[in-house]
Amino acid sequence: MALQIAIDRDAVIASPGATEEVVVTPDLSILRLAIVNVVFHGQPDCGDRGWVLIDAGIAGARGTIERHAARRFGEGTRPAAVILTHGHFDHIGALEDLAEMWDAPVCAHPAEVPFLSRRQAYPPADADAGGGLMTLLSPLFPRSPIDVSNRLMPLPGDGTVPHMPGWTWIATPGHTPGHVSLWHASRRILIAGDAVITTAQEAAYNVMTQEPEMHGPPRYFTSDWDAAEQSVRRLAELDPETLLSGHGPPLRGPEVSRALHELSRRFRDVAVP
């Protein structure tokens, strides 16, 4: 597929292998689970309920997430919460098992609740959105709702993120109705979810190689392109220095803000099918 916004490779903190964790800051690491990333927040060896998991990966990822959490935070430690950027299959695949095992609350935007309480399925994938093999396969991806309603907590209306001091959540709808991104203003760190991503998720080659670029949300599952464009504009205005996204390698440096502003300006031309 055509490149969206090129990224200087010097901006890539590291390109993790298929089940590899990359430490971004002392209290923040990103774990790649084949086609998607999850994020750990918390100081190493912080102990039980001292850390937070952001998103929950693909089905079958429970063991990998458990092992990395134990290695980072201590054997048998549980998170204070699981924070969801949204509820697509590749971000909640291990959620039901992990939340039950850990007896942990699940925090999400209220607009995602129907998809997390078995009340509503996401819209069908758009196999005509272009970009490569992943798009062609997308009608096969799961979109049925899960049920974690007994553990669901809405994100606070004041914008704070539970158990993550200094962080705020920002509504970034478009990819899904209740998509959120997480922002630490003083450190200029953005956890974008799928509002923007850093590889071309529509192409199997890019997914495997993690070729870096600044990219709009995955085309095949994005339901509202007007809202998605506004969300990218909102994130560009933050001028982040460090970016962790749901797909692709973590980035750091002035290249992040430059590429994000360019994506915002050219969104209709490069991101929308």
Automatic annotation (TrEMBL):
<dbReference type="InterPro" id="IPR036866">
    <property type="entry name" value="RibonucZ/Hydroxyglut_hydro"/>
</dbReference>
<protein>
    <submittedName>
        <fullName>Glyoxylase-like metal-dependent hydrolase (Beta-lactamase superfamily II)</fullName>
    </submittedName>
</protein>
<dbReference type="Pfam" id="PF00753">
    <property type="entry name" value="Lactamase_B"/>
</dbReference>
<feature type="domain" description="Metallo-beta-lactamase">
    <location>
        <begin position="35"/>
        <end position="247"/>
    </location>
</feature>
<dbReference type="GO" id="GO:0016787">
    <property type="term" value="F:hydrolase activity"/>
</dbReference>
<dbReference type="InterPro" id="IPR050855">
    <property type="entry name" value="NDM-1-like"/>
</dbReference>
<keyword id="KW-0378">Hydrolase</keyword>
<dbReference type="InterPro" id="IPR001279">
    <property type="entry name" value="Metallo-B-lactamas"/>
</dbReference>
